[in-house]
Write a structure and sequence with these properties.
Elements: H1 8-19, H2 37-48, H3 53-69, H4 73-81, H5 90-106, H6 110-116, H7 127-143, H8 147-160, H9 164-180, H10 183-190, H11 196-209, H12 214-227, H13 232-235, E1 255-260, H14 267-286, E2 293-298, H15 306-314, E3 319-321, H16 326-334, E4 342-344, E5 356-357, H17 362-375, E6 380-386, H18 389-404, E7 408-415, H19 421-429, H20 431-444, E8 461-464, H21 468-480, E9 488-490, E10 510-514, H22 516-519, H23 524-531, H24 541-553, H25 557-562, E11 568-569, E12 574-577, E13 583-586, E14 588-593, E15 596-597, H26 598-607
Parallel strand pairs: 1-2, 1-3, 3-4, 4-5, 6-7, 6-8, 8-9, 9-10
Antiparallel strand pairs: 10-14, 11-12, 12-13, 14-15
């Protein structure tokens, strides 16, 4: 998923804005050539104080540029703030606005950008200039973790732009943002006081987010189009509107080589993967589609990929799915000329023949819950992870994702499952220090005190990774230590895969992210596997979902790689291609309500 805080177009635009257009009126040169840089700035500002509005603005703009070149951004912003843009020509006002936005962005001060770029201050600008400023305001809204505000700005900019290519670029940005905004926020936006264009975009996003399968999304899009026949998104659709282009490029094969261990300790999970693949093929067969044949290639005990490739060539394999072993995957990536395309089931190092990759790492979940927390305005978080190597890895990913978006970790807990949770959570929330302060105060002040124990106040959310038993103890302890008002976001480790209202009631209020396979209505493949006696709602059931997706996604891999904005709604998440040919999985996120994931409760309600 694209980081909401960085849009490639806006970064390119910001660079161009600072170096592109110069004021049409040449500002006067500094007279005192013997003075240093500071004196030059001061001289410009003194001259500005004696000039009419327009030449004064030109002098202050020149001074601000000199200050910016020296890295004195704060002072440059003060100089620009003194310019009354309502009294100067539009072109000059535009230059002042652009430099203000660039400097405020460097200072990570989005509030200043929004204040300085208030549309009411720039009524006389051309439509194209207004569109450019709208793009800068959108970036500022994103820095304030308000993607809905950014979408509104981009919608206005798209309507002001006459160039179809530029309009398409705006539409792509709008849709990219809408895809990453949580459904409840999109739904709330549809109930606000919107104009025609805004309401159409929000309803389109809400309708498509509610539909999991490609066919359902296409039907929803058709229904939306009948209601919004004049909407810009229908006249100029954004890239990846429903996901993939069914009539677009596909990878067609007759024989798929599946590289998995057929014996040993990994044989059982490998068998589960194969069952998922076979279920996906059976569903396609029942739909009247031509399906490829699976050719099993045993990787048990192998540390060299060459024999597997030889077998694949001998048996006419046209695509390889697997292996799981990172060593074998990296050998494939390192080959200079790999004739057979590969969809690996684990991460790959870069190389001349780097394969496509689809895997179930916890990294996706860690990044998802950070993005969810950021999208809801939380930037100062506490990390709660197990005191184990895997917990440290998840915590490291969370920290990296958070800090890259301007957030920060204000406290951490590596909890000990054999320790006292009350004591550990108390230390995290700093409640013992609160009690200690009370004791000290009572020793000094002899009359009666009214005192209430308090928790720390520097955090606005909690990010957690915990297995079910630990999570059921941690959340009540957080409530006990006065953190019940802090939103908690968690990885899927706390959910066993099937609803259990009695055992999971203590998880109420936690929002977690998991596979659509477990949090949405069952697909045809899942129903088929369940009818065959497979436990699809379990930790191992996730491997069934991975097997299904490996079959469903392979025809679209070239399109996903080459067409930005395309995606496939899969069982393991919404699949899109990132750098390094890795399939990114956007997961489903939902809170626990009454001991049950809310998405499942809603699904049950809709079916009654």
């Amino acid at each position: 998923m694209t980081n909401l805080h960085r849009l490639s177009f806006s970064l390119l635009l910001a660079t161009a804005l600072l170096t592109g257009c110069a004021s049409q009126t040449t500002p006067p040169e500094v007279v005192d050539k013997t003075a240093g840089p500071a004196a030059g700035v001061d001289s410009l500002l003194r001259q500005a104080d004696t000039q009419p509005a327009t030449p004064a603005a030109e002098l202050r703009l020149q001074a601000a540029r000199q200050l910016a070149q020296r890295g004195e951004n704060a002072r440059a912003l003060d100089v620009l703030d003194a310019i009354d843009v309502s009294r100067i020509p539009p072109t000059l006002a535009f230059e002042v606005a652009k430099l203000t936005a660039q400097l405020s962005q460097n200072e990570q001060d989005p509030a200043t950008i929004l204040r300085q770029l208030d549309p009411k201050r720039f009524d006389n600008l051309s439509a194209q200039q207004q569109a450019t400023l709208g793009q800068l305001r959108a970036d500022a809204w994103l820095q304030q973790d308000d993607p809905i505000g950014a979408v509104r700005e981009l919608i206005v900019s798209s309507l002001l732009t006459l160039d179809p290519q530029e309009q398409q670029r705006y539409h792509n940005q709008i849709w990219q943002l809408l895809q990453n905004i949580p459904f409840d926020q999109i739904k709330a936006a549809t109930r606000q006081d919107n104009d025609y264009q805004e309401q159409g975009w929000f309803e389109l996003a809400a309708m498509l987010q509610e539909r999991a399968g490609l066919a359902e999304r296409e039907q929803a899009l058709q229904k939306w189009g009948m209601m919004w026949q004049s909407h810009p998104a229908l006249l100029l659709p954004p890239a990846g509107l429903v996901g993939i282009d069914r009539d677009g490029e596909q990878l067609r094969v007759q024989r798929i080589g599946v590289i998995l261990p057929l014996s040993g300790e990994l044989a059982k999970p490998a068998q589960t993967l194969r069952k998922g693949m076979e279920a996906a093929l059976e569903v396609a067969r029942r739909q009247g589609k031509s399906v490829p044949r699976l050719v099993l290639l045993d990787s048990t005990g192998l540390n060299d990929v060459a024999p597997l490739l030889m077998q694949a060539r001998q048996q006419g394999v046209e695509l390889l799915i697997g292996p799981l072993n990172p060593q074998l995957i990296n050998q494939l990536a390192a080959l200079q000329n790999l004739e057979i395309p590969v969809l690996a089931l684990n991460a790959s190092e870069p190389g001349p023949s780097q394969p496509w990759q689809l895997e179930l790492s916890s990294e996706h979940e860690a990044r998802m819950i950070v993005r969810r927390a950021l999208s809801e305005g939380h930037r100062r978080v506490l990390l709660v992870t197990p005191g184990a190597e895997w917990g440290d890895r998840v915590a490291s990913v969370m920290r990296e994702e958070l800090e890259s978006a301007g957030g920060r970790v204000v406290g951490t807990l590596r909890y000990d499952t054999s320790g006292n949770y009350n004591e550990q959570i108390g230390n995290l929330m700093l409640t013992p220090q609160s009690a200690a302060r009370e004791k000290q105060l009572r020793a000094v002040v002899r009359h009666r005190l009214e005192f209430q124990e308090r928790r720390r106040k520097d955090a606005d959310a909690i990010l957690m990774t915990a297995l079910p038993d630990a999570a059921r103890l941690i959340k009540p302890m957080l409530d006990y230590h006065f953190a019940g008002d802090l939103p908690v976001y968690a990885t899927s480790h706390l959910y066993e895969g099937h609803p259990d209202a009695t055992r999971d009631v203590d998880l109420n209020g936690i929002t977690f992210c998991d596979l659509p396979w477990l949090l949405q209505a069952p697909s045809e493949a899942q129903r088929l596997l369940s009818s065959n006696g497979e436990n699809t709602l379990s930790r191992s059931g996730r491997l069934l979902a991975l097997g299904v997706d490996s079959i469903n996604v392979y025809p679209w891999l070239p399109q996903l790689e080459r067409s930005s904005g395309t995606f496939l709604v899969g069982e393991t998440g919404q699949l899109s291609m990132s750098a390094g040919k890795r399939l990114e999985r956007t997961l489903s996120c939902t809170p626990f309500e009454n001991g049950i994931p809310a998405s499942l409760a809603q699904e049950s309600s809709d079916n009654n």
